[in-house]
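Need a sequence for this fold. Nothing fancy.
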C-alpha cells in the first residue's frame, strides 16, 4: 500500500510514503521527499515497530535466554537460538562441543539456510523477477507465480519444507525448537530421522542447482540492469574459517572494502566492539553500525549472501564452488554491489547449504549419542556469533553471580545492512523516480531493492536512549484536540 501526501515546508516538498513495505518480515516504511518537478530530495527506510529484546532480557536467568530470544522472529529463530546458545556455552562453563553436538547444530543451521533462502526467493522475490516489476499488483505475489510457473512454485514450496523438516528433526519443532542447549544438544538424531532426510536431500540439491540456473538466466536477460539496479558500493563483512572458506557456524571476521581490498581478516569475534560502532538516528528504531577505524561516513558495510560469496576464497562443496566462480567472473575481478545480485548469491548459498547438509547426513557422527561437552569454570561474559541466512549475527551477554542477565547487545544481520539498504533505495529512487510521475510500479522498484536484502525488520528493532513517542487526542469528529511528544 502506498499513499501520497503533500508536505507543508519552505521548499514545498511532497512526501511519498510506502507503508508498509510489503513481502518482508516485520513492519517498515519508506518516505521520499519530492519537489514540484518530482526530483528526489530524500529517501529513508524507517523501521516503525519496536521490540526491545535487549532490555527485557535483562534480569532473566541465563539459561532462559536461548529459548526467549528465538521469539524475535518466526522465520530465523534458529539463528538466534544458535548465537545465544554459543554465548551461553561459555557462560555456563562448557568446553568444546562433542563432534556429534557440533555437527547436529551445523545440520540444524544448514536446514535453516535452505528453508530461509527458499522462502525468500520463491515466495517473496520471484513475483517481481518472474512477473515483472510493474506487473499487475493483484497477481504480483506467490499465487501469481504458482499460476504462471506451477512446477517452479512447487519446487520452492517443497525445498522450504525440507529445510523445515531438518529443523524439526534436530530441534524438535519447525519453529522455536528446544533441541539446542548450553553445552550441546538434548536429543540424539535417530537413524530413522537421518534416513528420512537423506532420502530427500539429493532432490533438494538438484532443485537448488536449478534455482541457481534460473537466477543466472534472469540476469542474462539484462546483465547491466541487474548489476546496477540499487547499486550501493559498500564495505563487506562475513565469517570465514582458517582456510578462507565461508563458515556459517563459527569463524573469524573478514572485511574488505568496495574494491575488494582488505580491511581486517580472521579477527576474533569476541573483539567485535573494538571493530564496530553502533549509531542511532531519531527517525528509525534500527541502529546504524559502522567500522570504527573508518568512521560513520566511510565505515558502513553490508553482510549476507552478497558479501559472503565475494569474501570467501572458495566454497568447499563442488557444485556451489563452480557456481561461485561464475558469480565472481560476472564482476570481472571486481566486487558486485547491485541489490539484485543478492538473489544470485543467495541461491548459490542455498545450493552450498544443501550440499553441506548432505555431507553431514552421510557422516556417522550425526547419529552419535555423545551430546554434552565437559563442564568447567563459569564465565560472566560471552559473545556468540554466527552467519544467519541474512548475514552476520552478534549476541553479547553479561551475567551476574546470581545467574541473571545484566547486559544484552544484539547486532542482527538486517541492522548490519541498514545503511546499505538506505543507500540502495536512494540509488533506485534517483534513477527511476526522479523527474517522473510517481506510480505504484515505480514505487515497487524501491521495495524490490529492500526485498533483495531479505530484511528481517522484527529482528532489527532495537534502540539506544529514549524511545520516541507521539500521542494524538482527537474528538469524535476527528479533529485534533492535543498532541504530546516524548523523546
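Here you go.
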Amino acid at each position: 500500500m502506498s499513499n501520497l501526501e503533500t508536505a507543508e515546508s519552505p521548499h514545498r516538498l511532497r512526501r511519498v510514503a510506502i507503508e508498509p513495505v510489503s513481502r518482508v518480515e516485520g513492519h517498515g516504511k519508506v518516505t521520499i521527499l519530492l519537489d514540484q518537478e518530482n526530483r528526489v530530495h530524500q529517501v529513508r527506510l524507517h523501521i516503525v515497530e519496536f521490540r526491545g529484546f535487549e532490555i527485557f532480557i535483562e534480569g532473566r536467568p541465563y539459561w532462559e535466554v536461548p529459548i526467549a530470544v528465538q521469539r524475535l522472529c518466526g522465520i530465523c529463530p534458529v539463528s538466534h537460538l544458535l548465537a545465544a546458545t554459543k554465548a551461553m556455552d561459555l557462560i555456563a562453563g562448557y568446553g568444546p562441543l562433542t563432534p556429534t553436538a557440533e555437527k547436529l547444530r551445523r545440520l540444524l543451521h544448514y536446514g535453516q539456510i535452505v528453508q530461509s533462502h527458499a522462502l525468500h526467493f520463491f515466495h517473496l522475490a520471484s513475483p517481481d523477477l518472474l512477473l515483472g516489476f510493474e506487473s499487475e499488483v493483484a497477481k504480483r505475489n506467490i499465487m501469481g507465480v504458482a499460476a504462471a510457473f506451477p512446477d517452479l512454485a512447487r519446487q520452492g514450496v517443497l525445498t522450504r519444507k525440507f529445510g523445515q523438516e531438518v529443523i524439526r528433526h534436530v530441534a524438535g519443532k519447525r519453529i522455536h525448537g528446544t533441541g539446542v542447549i548450553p553445552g550441546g544438544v538434548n536429543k540424539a538424531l535417530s537413524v530413522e530421522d537421518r534416513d528420512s532426510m537423506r532420502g530427500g536431500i539429493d532432490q533438494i540439491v538438484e532443485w537448488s542447482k536449478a534455482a541457481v540456473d534460473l537466477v543466472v538466466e534472469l540476469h542474462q536477460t539484462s546483465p547491466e540492469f541487474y548489476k546496477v539496479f540499487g547499486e550501493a558500493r559498500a564495505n563487506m563483512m562475513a565469517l570465514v574459517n582458517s582456510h578462507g572458506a565461508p563458515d556459517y557456524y563459527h569463524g573469524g571476521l573478514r572485511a574488505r572494502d568496495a574494491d575488494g581490498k582488505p580491511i581486517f581478516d580472521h579477527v576474533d569475534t569476541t573483539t567485535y566492539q573494538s571493530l564496530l560502532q553502533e549509531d542511532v538516528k531519531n527517525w528509525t528504531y534500527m541502529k546504524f553500525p559502522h567500522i570504527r577505524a573508518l568512521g560513520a561516513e566511510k565505515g558502513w558495510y553490508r553482510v549476507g549472501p552478497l558479501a559472503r560469496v565475494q569474501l570467501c576464497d572458495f566454497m568447499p562443496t563442488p557444485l556451489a564452488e563452480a557456481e561461485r566462480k561464475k558469480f565472481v567472473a560476472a564482476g570481472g575481478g571486481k566486487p558486485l554491489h547491485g541489490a539484485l545480485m543478492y538473489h544470485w548469491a543467495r541461491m548459490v548459498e542455498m545450493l552450498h547449504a544443501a550440499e553441506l547438509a548432505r555431507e553431514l547426513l552421510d557422516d556417522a557422527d550425526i547419529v552419535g549419542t555423545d551430546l554434552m561437552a565437559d563442564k568447567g569454570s563459569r564465565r560472566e561474559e560471552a559473545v556468540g556469533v554466527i552467519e544467519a541466512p541474512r548475514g552476520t549475527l552478534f549476541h553479547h551477554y553479561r551475567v551476574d553471580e546470581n545467574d541473571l542477565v545484566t547486559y544484552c547487545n544484539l547486532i542482527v544481520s538486517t541492522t548490519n545492512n541498514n545503511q546499505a539498504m538506505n543507500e540502495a533505495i536512494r540509488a533506485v529512487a534517483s534513477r527511476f523516480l526522479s523527474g517522473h510521475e510517481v506510480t505504484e510500479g515505480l514505487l515497487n522498484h524501491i521495495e524490490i531493492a529492500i526485498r533483495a536484502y531479505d530484511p528481517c525488520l522484527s529482528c532489527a528493532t532495537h534502540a539506544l536512549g529514549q524511545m520516541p513517542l507521539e500521542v494524538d487526542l482527537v474528538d469524535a469528529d476527528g479533529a485534533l484536540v492535543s498532541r504530546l511528544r516524548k523523546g
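For context: The chain is about 40% helix and 20% strand.
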